[in-house]
Specification:
Number of helices: 10
Structural class: alpha/beta
Strand content: 15-25%
Oligomer: single chain
Order of helices and strands: EEEHHHEHEHHHHHH
Number of domains: 2
Number of strands: 5
Largest sheet: 5 strands, mixed
CATH class of the largest domain: Alpha Beta
Distance between the termini: 60 Å
Strand order of the largest sheet: 3-2-1-4-5
Length: about 230
């Protein structure tokens, strides 16, 4: 199973008001293992970053001015995520922005590019109802080190979210993995090439007589309902 854990940073909160993506960060999971494969780009949004957003991620207009536009990175981005399942925290926010950017480039929406989308915020709310389920709160809950997260950053947040997702779903596939895994080296028991003939031990006449006596007692106690006697009959 190939999964892509994804996060974005934006100029503001609403793509319908003209806000744009300024950073995309992705990490790859293959069969629930981090592969080390990443996709990370800063993007020139061709508009000003709002003050509130700047306070969250610290990506200034000056920093983004010489970065590529979304249209220049879209092909590489689609190649990285195509055919995978996306894992996103508060997925509606990121997918709304990404589908908007893809539409501006005459590209198909994420739903037609990826096999599915997992919203870890929804998952966390089902697992921990009534509790805080921000990325920072989940890192604390699952003992994941997020001390380097002084500001939001798409790649760092995707890396942390991958750890959170694996922690939240740990154990779901353990039984299947154990059934599919071959025995560890050294635990295999080899049968001998030649095995001795089995020795058959039969009951003696005295033992058979004692067996019949016990069955008779059981039959008497059960008022003739001894199943062993019925079998012999």
């Amino acid at each position: 199973m190939r999964q892509i854990v994804l996060d974005t940073e934006t100029t503001g909160l609403d793509h319908r008001m003209g806000d744009r993506i300024i950073e995309i960060g992705c990490v790859e999971l293959l069969n629930r293992k981090l592969t080390g494969q990443r996709f990370h780009r800063y993007i020139n949004p061709e508009r000003e970053v709002e003050a509130g957003a700047l306070a969250v991620h610290g990506l200034s207009n000056e920093f983004l001015q010489d970065k590529p536009r979304f249209g220049e990175i879209v092909a590489a981005f689609l190649d990285f995520i195509r055919g995978a399942e996306l894992i996103i925290h508060n997925a509606a926010f990121d997918t709304g922005f990404l589908d908007n950017e893809l539409a501006l480039q005459q590209q198909a929406p994420l739903g037609r590019i990826c096999t599915g989308i997992v919203d870890t915020l929804k998952m966390a709310r089902e697992l921990h109802p009534g509790r805080r389920n921000s990325l920072d709160a989940l890192c604390e809950r699952y003992a994941i080190d997020n001390s380097g997260r002084t500001l939001h950053g798409a790649l760092l947040d995707a890396e942390l979210l991958a750890e959170v997702y694996l922690a939240m779903t740990r154990g779901q596939e353990t039984l299947l993995m154990e059934l599919e895994s071959p025995p560890a080296e050294g635990l295999r028991t080899a049968l001998p090439a030649e095995r001795p003939a089995l020795r058959v031990v039969r009951a003696s006449a005295e033992e058979q007589a004692e067996h019949e006596r016990v069955l008779a007692e059981i039959g008497q106690e059960s008022r003739g309902n001894c199943l062993w006697q019925e079998r012999q009959a």
